[in-house]
Amino acid sequence: MKTTLSVIKADIGSIGGHIRPSQALLDAVRSRIHAHRGNHLLIDARVSATGDDIAILMTHRHGVGDPAVHKLAWDAFRGGTDVARRQGLYGAGQDLLKDAFSGNVRGMGPAVAEMEFEERPAEPFLFFAADKTDPGAFNLPLYLAFADPMNTPGLLLSPELSQGFRFVIMDVGHTEGDRVIELNAPEDMYRIAALLRDTERYVVESVWSRATGEQAVAACTTRLHNIAGKYTGKDDPVMLVRVQKNFPATGEVLAPYAIGALVAGGMRGSHNMPLMPVPQESGVSYFDGPPVVSCAALCMHDGRLTEAEDAFAHPFWDRVRDQVAAKAIELRRQGFFGAAMLPMAELEYTGVTAMLAELEPRFRLREEARPQVAMRAG
Ligand code: F6R
Ligand code: MG
Ligand code: MG
């Protein structure tokens, strides 16, 4: 029998700015979800926070995109939003972009990652959640974990992994809607890299084992501004990764987060900042960031979840965090300049665009002045 693993996440309000949800808010969402554990809808569930976002991880038998499961998460977030408003939390209901639920939270604001599969006898998997960034933040870690033997020795050591992985990549910037392309590692590695370097345009939707056809990764591809037609906050993605056996080992999937790669989404959703791996429920701080990623490692059997190991709480990551903090401070030294701030099209605020429009009539052409200077010089 197949099991579905669904994670649905939203920013519905936080204390002290975009820092973290209040305990009352987290409790409100948790109690609404936990009431359904073991009933006809859910086998199991776990509610957690990363930065200012609340994620609901659920196991069930209803398949991907199930309206009842999605409505349960939506209602829990709506109920939570009432608590957020009562407490005066900042950005209450921020990611709930529509008033009425219409069958599926996709396209309504929350981030979603889901996959349905036949459970293996041992089913270890990782649940990643990132705050103050967008789905492209997972491009590099996934490329390294599933396509690069410099990161993943399993690609050389395991005959199953050596057969490579199929990447399904979404073009989230196409004007006529979402488009996807399927590319195979290793033979398409350069093509995969050519797409994944552009994190605002191309994002990994899923990754599949070519040895068995099994799904390894389900990642969120939601871009809030594609939904609302304007920027309404960063997209703060989630991702599920099955590990071990025919998939990369847990450590191979975690290793790329030691890089602290620069990602979009820091401070007012408008800056590049290094991605810091953090324990769950640790909030954000410096420069409304830096962008953070958490990872809960679990196993499941018949849909029942074990307790989660907080993968980035291990002391190893303290040193990484120090390095990422130093990188963040170094980048912030250049303020608004160059690569520190996002390009015009990606800015969450419209102030710069308005300022440029206001200056437009004050520009004058130099055409006449140039020849005179040239003649004098001659
Ligand atoms: C992510 C998030 C941010 C905000 C951004 C602007 O958690 O909420 O991307 O959307 O910082 O927020 P305001 O405009 O409220 O300062
Ligand atoms: Mg927020
Ligand atoms: Mg957030």
From TrEMBL:
It catalyses: beta-D-fructose 1,6-bisphosphate = D-glyceraldehyde 3-phosphate + dihydroxyacetone phosphate; beta-D-fructose 1,6-bisphosphate + H2O = beta-D-fructose 6-phosphate + phosphate. Keywords: Carbohydrate metabolism, Gluconeogenesis, Hydrolase, Lyase, Magnesium, Metal-binding, Schiff base. Mg(2+) 1 binds at D11, H18, D52, Q94. Beta-D-fructose 1,6-bisphosphate binds at H18, Y90, G103, N104, K132, Q244, K245, R268, D288, Y349. Pathway: Carbohydrate biosynthesis; gluconeogenesis. Mg(2+) 3 binds at K234, D235, D236. It holds the Pfam family FBPase_3. Its cofactor is Mg(2+). Mg(2+) 4 binds at D235. Dihydroxyacetone phosphate binds at H18, K132, R268, D288. Its EC number is 3.1.3.11, 4.1.2.13. Catalyzes two subsequent steps in gluconeogenesis: the aldol condensation of dihydroxyacetone phosphate (DHAP) and glyceraldehyde-3-phosphate (GA3P) to fructose-1,6-bisphosphate (FBP), and the dephosphorylation of FBP to fructose-6-phosphate (F6P). Belongs to the FBP aldolase/phosphatase family. Homooctamer; dimer of tetramers. This is Fructose-1,6-bisphosphate aldolase/phosphatase. It comes from Mizugakiibacter sediminis.
